[in-house]
Amino acid sequence: MNGLSLSVPSTMARIRGAAVMSPGWRRWWVVVFYALAMAWVESAVVFYLRFHMDRLVPYQPNPLPEIGGFALAEVVREAATMVMLATVGCLAGKTWRSRFAFALLAFGVWDIAYYLWLVPLTGWPRSILEWDILFLIPLPWWGPVWSPVSIAALMILFGTLVGIHDSSDRPLWPNKVSCWAAAIGVVLALYVFMADSLRVVLADRNLEHLRDMLPQWFNWPLFLAALVLMAMPVLSTFRRARTTASRPVLDCEKWIEHFVRNRANRIEPDWNAPITLPANQLAALIPSIEQFQLGDGGGECRLIAFDAERFRGKSDAIRKLVDLWFAEEAEHSRLLGCAVDRLGGQRIKSHWSFTAFCQVRRVLGVRFELQVLTLTELVSTAYYRVLRRHVEDAPLRDMCSLIMRDEGGHVAFHRDRLAAAGNSHRGFAVEVCRAQFWLCGYAAATVLWTSHGRCLRALDGSRTEYFKEVRRELSRFIAAMQARRRRLNETDNETFYWTAPMTARNSPFRESFSLTSDESVN
Q1: Are 466 and 222 in contact (CB under 8 A)?
Q2: pLDDT tens digits for 171-224?
Q3: What is the pTM of this model?
Q4: CATH 1.10.620.20 occupies which residues in the chain?
Q5: CATH number, span 252-490
Q6: Which of 11, 130, 269, 330 has its CA 20 to 30 A from that of 411?
Q7: Which letter, b or e, does each residue of 288-307 get, where b requires 16 or more Cβ atoms within 10 Å of its Cβ?
């Protein structure tokens, strides 16, 4: 009795574990059951037609006799079958990739089950080497049973891999080379299936002769080559699925919620407050803020690299996340524009440094653009921190606090993005990557100091103080990213504490944006 009491809970746990099925597999089984049932309908219809025409075995003289309107009805029925298979794929999938994959899965299961159901109904096929009329659109396709079954098996494998593992956060798709190879393979396979029909049409130019045509030889060497080409996307997808399964995922929903909630509790600076800054400080401050107003969302406030869609188009969640990120940058431009108006400056439309910055982003690709934008966030945070520390103007300090609060979230977002992307480098390559990040960071900081150092010096800031802040931002970002990557590698399901950033002090991104004792928020 005691043994029974000990075994029952473990048995129930196994039963519960077996009963748990992921949504992807549930959709997979629905598609498979649908395809099996549809294959029976297909087999039954073919049985009725072949029995009526005395053609239970398709490979015999006059294989396509003209009986009433059956020919047109059969062509339309085949087209309708394709529509039904595509429809179930669209209903089962959540992304265009999984919809296409589930449609292929349905086609593959339907095709193989069709021959399985025909055996008890008609006694045919007796072997996989027997000839069959595979399709009628646009010309009759002929081939041994094993040829469509082998293609259907590839469809099932590809449909299962992509249908189960693809998601908006983890897109799964074969590389371009394998896709082009598969396209060539499809063309070759179609040629093999319709080679005899094409010869008849080109030689006699009489479609009626197709009804009496019987193929004599199947070009299996060319078909095997086509099959190898069509298998390449399956192999590519399998490799990518293994890599993707072990890679942490960027929690897009968390960051979307952050950006949405960050819009709340934003106290607008008092732009009507009197200006008490001396003339020499105003003369240096106004041009600096004018340039930041243009560069901080005042120009093209979006990803502008020639291949930006590689990142932005990964999923709908990524696209929304990028839009929210740049919406905050546009808000910074609005705040800086209000500061320019208050100080009596002029909102500029272009500047050589901003033009060069945009051209570099366009030409060098989205991966470089994202790194440049990350470094810009870091060195700008150092600028705003020094500015807030020294400027004797409450609205400007409040503006800096708001922007730094947002930049802290942006830096933390990029930290998570890079941590989730992973890094295949090891050993010396890691040090090279870290060195180039530092080098590019110092280059960005030098460019910023060249344009805005006069402003900070006029406020009693110094080059040493600014670059000290830059070093702190860069080192903390690298350390936080590496720590985050280690934690993500430990588990994909770990929940990290974070709340809506109400003020700088209670921000969840304090590793990216913290306040020292001399930097209280007014």
Answers
A1: no
A2: 889 999 999 999 999 999 999 999 988 888 887 766 666 777 788 889 999 999
A3: 0.55
A4: 252-490
A5: 1.10.620.20
A6: 269
A7: bbbbbbbbbbbbebebebee
